[in-house]
Amino acid sequence: MFRLFLINLLKSGxxxxxxxxxxxxxLPPKRLRNRRIYERFDIDHKHLSLMNDQDIxxxxxxxxxxxxxxxxxxxxKRLVVGDVYLCRIRYLGELYDxxxxxxxKSKGFVxxxxxxxxxxxxxxxxxxxxxxxxxxxxQKIDERFIELHDNEGMTWYHGPNETNFYLWLDDEEExxxxxxxxxxxxxxxxxxxxxxxxKIIRDKQDPNTMTPWAATHxxxxxxxxxxxxxxxxxxxxxxxxxxxxxxxxxxx
Length: 252
Hints:
This protein is an alpha+beta fold. The chain contains 7 helices and 15 strands.
């Protein structure tokens, strides 16, 4: 669902190496590599990869300014620090073009920085950061706590910034319904009502604070497009067997 294509080599790093007479595959000092000016997030490589005419490079983490990939021995040899490629990003039905420069190589991994990205591409990369953070941070809540309440077979995942994801499956592991909460807003789905978005009404005196999945909601008149996009981006990085069907439920 997320593919990055190396379309064409625009500039060879080998030429720059000859001019500058510097060692190949030189990494920046460790203190600079560890300094995360742009925070990176690990991702599920099942749906994210980078491709060229000969190799598939698995994208292992992503930031606003670039990404790192795990490559084959052949790909590691072919890619040179300083190489600049025309790069095309395909994400669901979206397409974005940019230039990607090989910035470092180490132990089967290659790091790319995006160069000369369009405004739309930069907006797209920034858009992914929070959903990636949320999707990779969700942790399953102990079932013993959930079983104390009537939850109709619900599984509860909790993340940062008051993020909660509730998933209801039937006996055959098919999705009955789901709800994603992000701070004071929510998006939910069931096969009867479809997608519904809105705000969460929180009351400290309300006993539902012990069962947050039963909180009071104020529903929007029509589904919020930004919330639908946010949920789609979160589901893209979830490592759950039902992730594809979750995404389909939003788009249906």
